[in-house]
Amino acid sequence: MLEDIRIIDEAGAELPPGESGEIVVHSIGMMTGYYKNPELTEEATWTAPDGRGFMRTGDIGHLDKDGFLYVSGRLKDMIKSGGINIFAVDVERVFMRHPDVSEAAAIGVPHLKWGETPLVVVIPRSGAEIDPEELRQWANERLAKYQRASHVLVRGELPRAVYGKVAKAELRREFGSGAGL
Questions:
Q1: How do residues 111-134 score in pLDDT, each as one tens digit?
Q2: In a shared domain, residues 84 and 48
Q3: Choosing a second label site near 167 at 20 to 30 A (CA), which of 39, 65, 109, 175?
């Protein structure tokens, strides 16, 4: 049973209800660290002002005013563009509203001016043909200026983990350097 859940920003400061950041947890049954790996243990631990250790989950979310937790994504799925954090899931949701899109996966790719910008890989619905540039323009009209996709790729399938989830790590390996765009 979890004893305490908190939300922290990139600098490790605790965030108030309603603000999104990394979810950290404290529990009496939580691990004390990685076996013979103090560096990894330190990286995975956040210490509260009262000295208690919390484990970083790598998940992004927020607590509402009543203390209910809302998970919105993974920290690794965060795209950092021009100093602003973009949740990949927010970009994906917009692309998924297009009637010809069956699935969408967004990752960050390098950009000289902004650091990173969203690349979105989409799978068309059965029988649909998608023009990547037309889809990019359609979605960018519906996204905030800082969320706009710089590239859209159409694929027949997305890489998946054994349990069916999209393997974004594979997309990052393939396109994370900006190569192949």
A1: 999 999 999 999 999 999 999 999
A2: no
A3: 39
